[in-house]
């Protein structure tokens, strides 16, 4: 059986490559190198091989991160989030419970995903959220806001600062507030 995980982390356990060797007695078929900054908080999560997690990032319980990902500085990943292989998540991104990123997704700096339709401080709604799916190869520009309960299609390009309120279809380019389609794009971004 192939093992693609760097390690299955227990609550608050933070390991880098040297710690993996020390903790697990070596690196064999079951343990592969990943890099996690010592200030990152990793709860009970699965981290794929060759993934890098930077300063002050918090990965919550039940998160699954694929192999060959880069998770930038000061990123929050909520409980149960799924992140595919080859994803690049830039600094200061907020990904709450209910979000799934397929393979090779790019998330620009300071992107915010939301998951509650009508939040109120005085009403407990921690379990009332809508799911969001970001499909393979999509790119989301810096400072975009993604409202809950939508799908972002394959190889979509979302412009910086866009506020995405509705589903975006495969290969669309969307910009603005609210985000509107202005064209289509190829897989390679041209």
Main attributes of the structure:
single chain; 190 residues; mainly beta; UDP N-Acetylglucosamine Acyltransferase, domain 1; 9-stranded mixed beta sheet; 7-stranded mixed beta sheet; 1 helix; 23 strands; transferase activity; Trimer_LpxA-like_sf; transferase; Putative acetyltransferase; Hexapep_transf_CS
- Alpha-carbon Rg, integer: 17 Å
Apparent shape = globular
Counting DSSP H or I runs of 4 or more residues, the number of helices is 1
CATH superfamily: Hexapeptide repeat proteins
How many domains would you count in the coordinates?
A: 1
Q: How would you characterize the largest beta sheet?
A: 9 strands, mixed
The CATH architecture category equals 3 Solenoid
Order of helices and strands: EHEEEEEEEEEEEEEEEEEEEEEE
Share in helix: under 10%
| Main sheet: strand order | 2-5-8-11-14-17-20-22-23
Low-confidence stretches: 8-18, 20-30
Q: How would you classify the helix and strand content by structural class?
A: mainly beta
Annotation, overall tally of beta strands: 23
The top-level CATH class is Mainly Beta
Mean pLDDT: 88
The name CATH uses for the topology is UDP N-Acetylglucosamine Acyltransferase, domain 1
Q: How far apart lie the N and C ends?
A: 39 Å
Write down the oligomeric state: single chain
| Strand residue percentage | 25-35%
